[in-house]
Amino acid sequence: xxxxxxxxxxxxxxxxxxxxxxxxxxxxxxxxxxxxxxxxxxxxxxxxxxxxxxxxxxxxxxxxxxxxxxxxxxxxxxxxxxxxxxxxxxxxxxxxxxxxxxxxxxxxxxxxxxxxxxxxxxxxxxxxxxxxxxxxxxxxxxxxxxxxxxxxxxxxxxxxxxxxxxxxxxxxxxxxxxxxxxxxxxxxxxxxxxxxxxxxxxxxxxxxxxxxxxxxxxxxxxxxxxxx
Length: 228
Description:
With about 230 residues, this protein is of the alpha/beta class. The protein is about 35% helix and about 15% strand. The protein has a single domain, classed as Rossmann fold (3-Layer(aba) Sandwich). It is built from nine helices and eight strands. The longest helix is centred in the N-terminal third of the chain and has 14 residues, at about 45-60. The radius of gyration is 16 Å and the shape is globular. About 45% of the residues are buried.
């Protein structure tokens, strides 16, 4: 099965190298995406450009793919489900949640010179980055790609309620399924309150399991794809 891999902020497709290698060994077809503006030299890219790239990958799949969104890209994966509900076997949300209609995509940090650069590790101290050693942090920071302002501040538009019928797996790395369930029940993640088939799985890692636990992460994704 095709597994489309969409990295979060500051990441290009190479972030998935180890996960992809393990996924292939497990019999699946991983498709790591390098998004417009995040590795293809297009600093003026917009959220619509990134969604178009994801939808092109969905449409190119030989069969209904599993679409994996990491961190902020959980919203991109969910936008794909909104645009192609009949074409996606399952959405996997890793370390994040889809933004609601009308909300900015990812205006979390300061925009400078038309882009949102990696802000350093201070905002991520604690469970997010506890499993990344200093060498891993330096590698991440040196490779981090500033996210175009047109992506970070793009407005999320959701229009097709058939998205709620697409099965969703919520992978919980730096938080637990119990915590996620509490946020959903409290109405803090409105898009997930209406999902008809939602499952949650725990992953003992920080926010970037593709770097700290790639084999375990790949095996989890393979299990999800096998079930789909």
